[in-house]
Structures are given as C-alpha cells and as structure tokens.
Amino acid sequence: MSLPKNFLWGGAVAANQVEGAWNVDGKGLSVADVATYKPTVDVKDYKHQVAVSTDTIQAAIADKTDTDYPKRRGIDGYHRYKEDIALFAEMGFKAFRLSIAWSRLFPNGDETEPNPAGVQFYQNVIAELQKYNIEPIVTLSHYEMPLHLSLTKNGWVDRSVIDDFVRFAKVCFASLPTVKYWLTFNEIDSVTRHPFTSAGIIPDQSKHLEQDEYQALHHQFVASALVTKLAHEMIPGSQVGCMLTKLTDYPATAKPEDVLASFQANTMNYFCADVQAKGIYPPLITKFFEKNNIQVAFGPDDAAILRDNTVDFISFSYYMSLISSASGDVEMTSGNTIVGGKNPYLKTTEWGWSVDPVGLRISLLQLYDRYRKPLFIVENGMGAADTLTADGKIHDPYRIAYFRDHLREMIKAVDDGVDLLGYTSWAPIDLVSASTSQMSKRYGFIYVDADDLGHGTYDRYRKDSFYWYQKVIRSNGADLD
Question: Which domain does 412 fall in, by range?
C-alpha cells in the first residue's frame, strides 16, 4: 500500500488560536476575542465552556486585557510565524492549512475597504510558506467572525452578511492570487452546536434559536457557493472545498431502533456537505424542517446559486466516533464540541474523546462513496497533557501511537480506492484550544512554553513526535514505526 507521490502532508491551525495580537495593527474584535478561559467548568462540559450572553460579551469588550481571554494572545504567532514556518519546513511539510482573521482585514466586518496592515500580514505569511515550497490551504472563516457583525446583525442570521463576506473573500483572492486551495467555512455543521462561535448568533438575542441557526446556516451555504464561483473566476485553476465535522456514529446495539437512531444522526451530519457538494437540500432534511416548524427563507436565486456552484472537494475533521441508542441508556462522553454516546470498545483521551482509528477509514469510505469527489483530511489529532523536561525534551509516545494508528487506517482507505488529496494534523504546534481555551490541552509536534494563564517564555521545543512525523513525511507514509 502506498500514497500518491504528490500527497499533501502537513498541519493545520486557526488564526484565532495562534496569532494573538488581538489589538495590533488595526485588528478589530472577533467572536474568539470574547471567549473566556473557565477553569471552574469541567473541560468535558462543552455546552458551558462555549456559553455566551449579551452581558458576558459586553463585559469582555470593557476588559482591555487578555487575562481571561487566551485567544487574544494565542501563541504569539503574529510575531513568530517565520520561526514556526521554519519548523514546519524542517518537519518536511508539503502543505499548511491556516485561516484568515476576517476582523484583521475588516475590523468591523462591513467596511468597504480593507485594512492594509492586515492584507500585508497574510501576504507575508503566504510568501514565507512558499519560500519553503509549502502549499497554503486557506480557510476563509474559522470561528473568527467580526464581533461587530454579531452585535449589530446577530451574525449570519442577517442576510446582508453574505455581501460582507463576499467582499472579504474578494479581497483575499485578489491579495493572495498564488493560493490554489481554499476552504469556505470551517466545520460549517457546527452552527447548530455552538451558534455564537460558528455564526455569531447571540442566543439571548434570538426568539427562536433553532430557526435562526438554520437560517444562518443557509446564508453560509449561499455565501460559500458565491465565493466558490468567485475563486474560480479570480484564480484560474483554484480548488475550493467545504469542511465538515465528521461525527461518525454507530448504533449502540443491533436493535433496529438503535440502527435507526444512528442513521438519523449520520443523516444530520451529512446535511451540510450534501448541500455544498450536491447543490440541493436533501429531502429528509426538508421534511425535518417541516416537522420542527423551521422555515428557511430562500432568496429568489438561492436554489440556482447552490446548484451551479458546488465545491471541488470535501475536507473534514475527524477526531472520534460516537454511538446512538434509541432509549438513551448509554454512557455519555465528550468529543469535538459535542457530547454523545460512549463506545465501550474504545479507549478515551484525558478529555473524554473516544480513540477510533478504524473510524477514520470508515469515514473516508463513507464520504467517498457518497460524494465521489476528492477528499482531504484537514484536522485529526489528540489533546494531551505534555511535560517539558529539565533538558528541554517532551516525550509523547501516546501522541505517536495515536497518529500511527490513524495513518495506517487512512492508507488502507486509499488502498480501498479513496481519492485523498492530503492530510494535515491538528495541530502541528501547541495552540489555544477552541472549546476550552486551554494551552494545557496540547496537540502539537512542537511544544509552546505557555500555560493556561499565559505564563511562560513562549519558546518552541521539538517533541519526540516532531521527529517521528518528519520520518513519516520523508517516507510518504511508508515508515510509521
């Protein structure tokens, strides 16, 4: 078994989790800049970890420090990106997935002209990547909506945000014409799990939250289709992908009722990719809307826009699998911003995430069979507590074991016939966790000397896994030992 010679090995990050510099060079506040570190809340309680209200947002705006807001400081990537990219190049990266902070280009999100300093920053980053022949994979929206649009329009609930986003994307395409691979919305299906983080919806500002979530999601679908068309026009040969949270679900037992419950969970998970890859709303989803009194308003041209501008490939995150039971009598566990049934046959991480390498192979086969489009694994990894030794070493055999097992199953899926463009780990360097805003939940092959309160030198250290991944890339996946 072997991978294509042009397979894109690399890693993935988000601007709001690495850049910091939240108030530097004209950047405006984003929804990430008001996310608080909550040490008194169980790290497995994602619902309360990401909870916000109008009052908490206003308190965050009034607070001009980064003490309780770790994403305001990130890992100082804004100033240290050259150092980090050099380390990625040392590992042998062929690709690097990053995102553009919308509020760094348009501080409020609705300006007519971009912030020149923000444009220049991303041009510098892309130039640095290309200096090392690292292919940039750029996400336009990765949980970084300008806070102003959230406060004034309740985020993506307002259709006018489509125009704001298209204007932002047009500047990105014009400023970064050498970028070939683009993603529109990170984990677009997450709007219904954490509406503020993903779509800028403030729950206490919504009279019918579920209705607003699906309306916001529709507006993102339309925006995604429009910018897909725009990218193809402005950057000939460019490839645009959607990005799904692959929440692979198994029935808890062979009981038909459990199989049905699992089918329904997977159907909802596929919904967003169905719209973006096939260009239509699936009949089972429209029936779901009807049964739940959800009325998604379409513009007169929306159906044609979705139909005529489908994505070129499907990208996704995969961290764990879940199980479903019709009776609900299963133990629950946490996952990627979700809580679901715990599989008794699988081990879990310190943060409660089930470890299921075979589930990655299943996910690849399911997605490729369903869409017949190239796939791209753009997030996969595990959060763990690492220890920096006195001599500057980090021994992380648990991380190596996790990746080794998942990559083996990935290669099997390619051997089964899956067309896979590449694999970017989450994350190649320690960063601030999306859900819990922790630094101690470490993902990287590179250790960053900072704790949950921001204390530390922020110096970078190579972990044992750094050298292991370097070998994996050098052998194009042939040597996983």
Answer: 8-474
Distance CA 433, CA 447 (A): 14
Q: How many CB atoms lie within 10 A of CB 283?
A: 8
385 cis-preceded (ω within 30 degrees of 0): no
Total domains in the fold of the chain = 1
Is the omega angle on the peptide bond into residue 427 within 30 degrees of 0, that is, cis? yes
Contacts of 300 (CB under 8 A, 6+ apart): none
Q: Give the separation between CA 146 and CA 153, rounded to whole angstroms.
A: 11
Structure tokens at 167: 């204007």
In a domain, 300, yes or no: yes
Read off the pTM.
Answer: 0.96
Q: Is the dihedral of CA 218, 142, 385, 23 positive or negative?
A: negative
Question: Per-residue pLDDT tens for 38-97?
Answer: 988 887 777 777 889 999 999 999 999 999 999 999 999 999 999 999 999 999 999 999
Amino acid, single-letter form, for residue 216? A
**3-class SS of residue 354:** strand
* DSSP symbol at 201: -
Q: Which H or E element spans position 36?
A: none
Q: What angle do CA 435, 211, 29 make, to 5 degrees?
A: 40
| CA distance linking residue 30 with residue 60, whole number of Å | 11
Output the domain CATH number for residue 337.
3.20.20.80
Positions marked active-site: 379
Which helix (H) or strand (E) is 234 found in, with range?
Answer: helix 209-234
